[in-house]
Specification:
This protein is an alpha+beta fold and 818 residues long. 36% of the residues lie in helices and 19% in strands. It has 25 helices and 35 strands. The chain has an 11-stranded mixed sheet, with helices on one face. The N terminus is likely disordered.
Length: 818
């Protein structure tokens, strides 16, 4: 029998129960206050100081830092030294742990902080030579660096160290039980070295291509795009007339597994385009840049605006680097994409049979140099580690597992970056202070590696693109994607191209310049320079769109920067559909119809990309894993070779890849495609349900920005930053990349690390956005405040107007001299 409701209302609890409830409520209240108070204590202990006064050692005059609504510091100082001293302090306050991770990668000391799991990473970078090169660059900097630039750099370093000594260290140090050592110039060069390494594609690619060439034969390579194909899009070059070296036509104005342990992101690609005055609504230059970098928390760029007499600059800075690699003044703007040039070769050495410490070189023997290094390891004694170098460079067999699977001979890495000291600090200083395009070009000449596409626009109406790098001249017979013969002097580099022959385009007739990591057109000497270039889908969409109209402005150009269309994928899909047996998709005709009518857009409601990428993975896996094995196939999906070769692979009827060498049958293209489609449809049915209308792309896409400590649960819930679904894609302008996989859930691993739009009609109205937020401090209000904006394609201002900044800023720090 059910109780009478009225009886329930009139029920009187027993005295013991009433007492229990009172105690429970009291305990919950106490617990709430304890939790709240504890959180406030922790927050106070670790929160950055964004308001008030601070004494900064070495400061000459009072320096003001205004924080805008998104945490960007606007620094007003009386001199360069004061500005960079304050910059060092505020940069460290927001990004010290990021600096820690970057400098430890570049100096080979990750294991000292994170433990023995990182020893192999330290061994790799030490063998490659980045720590050794950083020390050399620092020594040369101290001997030959400009006094003016050294003064600014040292002020920045002192500002960082002032924060390390007196500021509130971020929570990560407490969790790791570590206190950071002082920052120094060698650390700074180590960070530059790490950045340069992330541009070096040869280590992922050359061992794979060498394996294919040696074990499979040329007929397999012919289906791939080892070199740029005729159907790929190239960046047009337009060389200026020169009087000597002066411009004259200007206006006056397995490795993968190791890399997955890295606690910092890899730089992967980028877009940039600059539209000249004849094609803009304002009649002024329109500048855009979005660098593509592995997603992480914090994201890679730190924005800062510096003002002191004679200098006004808004820039994007790497952790630990004082000068912006991307930025603008009121007169000019510059940005970057990856050149993707081939600046690293592998030489397979032959040992002297009578002396294993010598290599054969022509008719001579050359000694192998050996040095021993000690790797400090957290919680245990240092590990001794031997590094061997041949005449061509460090021998990589012990740290690059793929090499051991190809040859037992020593294989040495010849890499342009480590051949001479870095002058990156001098170059970036000059780039920001250039008065005109002539001075700017003189600054970028100092960049010998990594290869960069440097993009430029100015108030005078100039637009320009330079591929900056020291380009080696290789013998005609050399295929730089294969291991070279270290015993044959005929394979050696023959010299260096003069900078004037590098790819470039200065004020071209088209009215715009654009780069998207694709192959530059022929050099001024008529040759293609080899590299690891993308096929050019992004560049083609950019170029076609810009060419279509002459009224571009800061608003209508956003649709292009946020576009998620790839025109090649629908062509691949149609070709694949034409080859399949209809029985493979019986019952799923509606899904195939959507794929058939796909325009290449990756809209969140779209069904086509969900099916396409699943089908593409199973097709490629069935084609290639029998020849390569699972590990090498996984490596293939990480290389430029995959992106560049997909169309040929899936559309070539006579390819040897179609046959499964592990069966007695002769599999055809139709066999493989049909089986892969059937498998894909069954998996999608199990994953998302029977109705293909439920297979929306947004359900297959995940975006989380991982923190270095987020790999340890439950710290992922604390430090990682999740974002709404995004239009993940391969090679659309708004590139949001993921690795193809059998699971059909795609974690977006990289994308625009910022999106910048600037119209020289009003520089103070320029816009940008970061993937997560400006600060890397968990307790900062700007830790994740831009994550949703970024995912939704929104922008926010890059302020430079002093009156607006002073009047609107709610947080201000005043640095005072001691």
């Amino acid at each position: 029998m059910l109780p009478n409701p009225q009886n329930l209302l009139n029920w009187k609890a027993e005295p013991e129960f009433n007492a229990f409830m009172k105690k429970l409520i009291f305990a919950l209240i106490i617990l709430f206050f304890v939790f709240t108070t504890g959180y406030q204590i922790i927050k106070y202990r670790f929160s950055p100081k964004y308001s008030g006064e601070l004494v900064l050692a070495g400061l000459d005059e009072e320096t003001e830092v205004f924080y805008d609504d998104f945490g960007i510091p606007h620094i007003y100082a009386g001199s360069a030294e004061d500005a960079y001293r304050a910059m060092g302090y505020v940069h460290a306050q927001d990004r010290l742990f990021q600096m820690e991770m970057m400098r430890r990668v570049g100096t080979g000391t990750l294991a000292e902080l994170l433990g023995e799991d990182l020893v192999e990473v330290d061994q790799f970078f030490r063998t490659l030579g980045i720590p050794k090169h950083s020390k050399w660059s620092a020594e040369e900097w101290e001997k030959n660096g400009s006094l003016e630039i050294k003064s600014a750099v040292n002020a920045y370093i002192n500002g960082v160290n002032d924060f390390i000594e007196k500021g509130k260290l971020p929570l990560e140090y407490t969790l790791l039980g570590h206190t950071p050592r002082p920052y120094n110039i060698e650390d700074m060069h180590g960070i530059v070295g790490y950045m340069s390494f992330t541009f070096a594609m040869a280590m992922k690619t050359d061992p794979l291509i060498t394996k294919m060439a040696r074990e499979l034969g040329s007929e397999y390579l012919e289906v791939l795009s080892v070199h740029t194909l005729p159907e790929h899009h190239v960046i047009p070059t337009h060389y200026p007339e020169r009087d000597g070296k002066v411009l004259t036509d200007m206006h006056t104005e397995s490795l993968q597994a190791l890399l997955e342990k890295l606690p910092v992101p890899l730089l992967e690609g980028s877009n940039s385009w600059i539209i000249g005055p004849d094609k803009t609504e304002s009649g002024e230059v329109l500048f855009l840049n979005d660098t593509h970098i592995g997603f992480a928390q914090p994201s890679v760029w730190y924005e800062a605006h510096l003002e002191y007499p004679g200098f006004s600059f808004y820039g994007n800075h790497l952790a630990g680097i004082p000068f912006g690699l991307v930025g603008h003044t009121r007169k000019h703007s510059f940005g970057l994409t990856m050149f993707e040039n081939d600046d690293q070769d592998f030489f397979e050495e032959k040992l002297n049979p009578a002396n294993p410490l010598e290599t054969i070189y022509g008719e001579e023997f050359r000694p192998i140099q050996i040095r021993e290094e000690q790797i400090p390891v957290k919680g245990q004694d240092p590990i001794k580690f031997e590094i061997r170098e041949s005449v061509h460079g460090p021998i990589m067999n012990n740290v690059l597992p793929e090499i051991a699977k190809i040859t037992s001979n020593p294989v040495a890495s010849w890499w342009v970056y480590i051949l001479e000291p870095s002058r990156a600090l001098e170059a970036t200083w000059k780039m920001a202070r250039s008065k005109d395009i002539h001075e700017f070009e003189n600054g970028i000449r100092l960049i010998h590696a990594p290869g960069l596409n440097v993009m430029y626009g100015d108030k005078a109406g100039n637009i320009a693109w330079w591929a900056t790098a020291k380009l080696p001249i290789r013998p005609d017979h050399v295929n730089s994607k294969l291991f070279l013969d270290g015993s044959d002097p005929a394979d050696e580099i023959q010299g260096w191209m003069p900078f004037e022959e590098n790819p470039m385009s200065i004020n071209p007739p088209s009215g715009f310049v654009a780069s998207a990591n694709n192959q530059p057109d022929t050099l001024s000497n008529g040759t293609f320079f080899p590299g690891y270039y993308y096929p050019g889908e992004r560049w083609n969409r950019i170029a076609k769109t810009i060419s279509a109209r002459d009224d571009w402005n800061q608003q209508n150009i956003k649709d292009l920067q946020l576009e998620a269309i790839n025109e090649t994928h629908p062509l691949n899909a149609l070709s694949m559909l034409e080859a399949v047996n209809p029985e493979a998709y019986e019952g799923f005709e509606s899904a195939l119809e959507q794929l058939k009518n796909w325009d290449g857009d990756h809209g969140l409601e779209s069904i086509a990309p969900t099916l396409y990428y699943k089908w593409l993975y199973h097709t490629l896996h069935a084609m290639m894993v029998d020849e390569l094995g699972e590990d090498w196939f996984s490596n293939f999906l990480e290389t430029f070779l995959y992106i560049r070769s997909v169309s040929n692979l899936v559309q070539t009827e006579s390819s040897p890849w179609w046959n499964n060498i592990n069966t007695n049958n002769q599999e055809s293209r139709s066999d493989i495609l049909s089986a892969a489609l059937k498998k894909s449809l069954e998996e999608l049915k199990g994953q998302f349900g029977n109705n293909p209308e439920d297979w929306q792309w947004k359900k297959a896409v995940v975006l989380e920005h991982p923190h270095p400590l987020g790999a340890q649960k439950p710290l992922d819930k604390l430090f990682n930053v999740s974002a709404p679904p995004v239009m993940a894609n391969e090679e659309s302008v708004n590139k949001l990349a993921f690795k193809l996989n059998p699971d059909g859930i795609y974690s977006v691993r990289s994308g625009p690390a910022m999106r910048i739009i600037l119209d020289f009609a009003n520089v103070e109205l320029s816009e940008s956005v970061l993937p997560t937020g400006q600060s890397g401090n968990l307790f900062s209000p700007w830790y994740r405040d831009q994550a949703e904006m970024f995912a939704n394609g929104e922008y926010r201002p890059q302020l430079m107007n002093e009156s607006l900044i002073r009047n609107s800023s709610k947080k201000k720090v005043t640095f005072k001299p001691e």
